[in-house]
Amino acid sequence: MSAWKQFTTKDVTITPFTADKGFNITGGELTGSDAGINIFAGRNIHYSSSLNFQSGFIYSSSANSIYNSAKQLYYTNYLSSSTGDYVATASLIPGVTRGDDRFVGSIHSPLFDNYLQSSLTQYRHWPTGSGDTITTISISAKLYGEKIIPSTFEFKY
pLDDT tens for residues 126-144? Predict the structure, then answer.
């Protein structure tokens, strides 16, 4: 048998809650499966190269996949300039008929939306040379809660 009580607006209190967590992880604790932190090495090489090794502590992925995933998600608009590539703004000049229409300016634009953290001018460098390497740190949301507060994360190597 169940009993139900209907709440009214005077019975409800809304309180803001911010979930910020703090951790200090050192040495071998970083690679433990319960830490939720994974470190990957990425490399700009062909996927069939013999140098395309598996990387990662908790789960792994190929070095080529790590490099290309990070490039696509965060750096595709920063390959030719550290402040980002300009968005193409081609203009249509209408003709007498549709066949006479023409575009002036570049009609190509970045293919991906890079996930920026703020509206400030971003300065980024992406290594594009053959064999260039990157390191990616993946941190589980169970460690940081809702967000990582700016200037609270420190990684010493």
Answer: 888 888 999 988 888 777 7
- Across the range 118-129, mean pLDDT stands at 74
The kind and range of the H/E element at 68 are helix 63-70
Contact indicator for 67, 44 with CB cutoff of 8 Å: yes
Beta strands in 10-120 (DSSP E): 37-43, 54-55, 61-62, 91-93, 102-104
Q: In this structure, are strands 37-43 and 102-104 parallel, antiparallel, or unpaired? A: unpaired
In the chain, what are the domain boundaries?
36-84+114-144
Is the model's pTM score more than 0.90? no
Return d(Cα 141, Cα 94) in angstroms, integer: 51
